[in-house]
Amino acid sequence: MRAEGMRRGNASAVLRAVLADGPLSRADIVRRTGLSAPSVTKLTAVLMDAGLLSEQAPLEATQGRPRVPVRIAPRGPVALGVHIGLLRTTLGLVALDGTVISQYVLDHDGDLDPRRIAEQAVDGAREFVAARLGARTLLGTGISLGGWVDGEMGTVVEHSALGWTDVRLLDLLDGRLPGPVVLDQNVRAAARAELWFGAGREADDFVYIFFGNILGAAVVVDRSVHRGPGAAAGGIEHLPVSGVEGTPCACCGAACLSAVASDAVLVERARERGILAAADEHLPLERLIAAARPAGTGSGDLRAQDLLRTRARHAGRAVATVADLLNPSRVVLAGGIVAAEEYLTDLRAEVTDRVHRGWSADERIVPSTFGSGTLVVASAMPLLEGVYQDPIAALGLDGKAEAS
Ligand SMILES: [Zn+2]
Question: Which residues contact 10 (CB under 8 A, 6 or more apart)?
């Protein structure tokens, strides 16, 4: 059993070395992993047979045989990521290197009943996979959503934007999605995606903060995402906010971060002020951002600019609190806040005005690596991670890796 465990660890080490620094020749892999050359040759062959690695065109030999670099196979296995948001469910096929190969959106049309949304996801996934998977291997389905999610229990404990409490989501889906099916909280899952494919390449500690229709944070220390008892960590939505007029939060009754800094509130304010029409239901945030942007000879809607700037400033105050408390190497921002990237300057300025310990907002605040693909990559993450941590088990290669 011990030898088997070692083989699995070694296969993982090879795959991870190629992910981190590939394409790599076998000699490079030997140097990076400390494994023997015969072992690397054997494991590389196993991983190529399984479709996880592929060879690139040989490089010119400086001496002896040409070096043939291997990389993460571009046509390798994929995971189905399903993200359930406030307005829509997004499906995506995500490759082993975190690229979104294809994405598909199901609008909720205002009906947020959990059973209805589960049915819609099941039907949508069936059609989407049939149309887009092709000859690839499907690793399984990862589902993620915001709020308080206990993935191990398969339960959405609380999602105030959707109005869900104690929804046993995996039971509702009841084995009707391509398996294995795993549930995770999307902000923590997105932080793990950054660990593998993004900010984690440069930093072992960071805080990932999502300002979208939901608000949430994930704290990464020593390359591990903190969950805490009941997986309840990361709630920033009700952080108190001072000096704000307007409607208090529906949940906590106070002026809190979610009452000033979520995409949903931004859209609501834009409707109240006549910047968006009530009928502008499709992609309202994107419409608001477009209204604010200068176009042609016009300077853009000043009211829209003011809303976006004010949201960025409020978000900046929250980031400043996090920066002073944790001194993270990076703060990775995601959600609607990065769609209006021109306002990140205001956000950084607010952080700089408020931090007390010299934390450098200009250097350390970075947008998420995945742009609009963030949510489906996060959803697929547990399955992709499973492959990197133990490719032999994840792809059922047990017999093939012997004697390596
Ligand atoms: Zn609140």
Answer: 33, 35, 39, 43, 404
For residue 185, how far is its CA from the centre of ligand 1 (angstroms)? Answer: 20
| Domain 2-73 class, CATH top level | mainly alpha
**Phi, psi angles (nearest 5°) of residue 148:** -105, 110
pLDDT < 70 stretches in the chain: 1-2, 59-66, 246, 280, 399-404
Euclidean distance between CA atoms 33 and 43, whole angstroms? 12
What pLDDT does 400 receive?
58
Domain ranges of the chain: 2-73, 78-193+374-388, 201-368
Tell me the C-alpha distance between 357 and 349, whole Å. Answer: 15
Q: How far is the CA of 240 from the centre of ligand 1 (A)?
A: 8
**Distance from residue 271's CA to the centre of ligand 1 (Å):** 21
pLDDT in tens, 281-296: 778 899 999 999 998 8
Instruction: Please count the CA atoms within 13 angstroms of the CA of 347 that sit on its side-chain side.
Output: 27
Which residues are CB-contacts of 233 (< 8 A; sequence separation ≥ 6)? 188, 218, 219, 226, 227
CA of 247 relative to ligand 1 center, distance in Å: 11
Q: How far away, in angstroms, is 301 Cα from ligand 1 center? A: 29
Ligand 1 mean position, distance from CA 255 (Å): 7
Residue 74 has what pLDDT?
86
Q: What are 273's two structure tokens?
A: 């002020």
pTM for the whole structure: 0.86
- Indicate if 78-193+374-388 has the same CATH topology as 2-73: no
Ligand 1: centre distance to CA 86 (Å): 17
Angle between helices 374-389 and 2-21 (to 10 degrees): 140
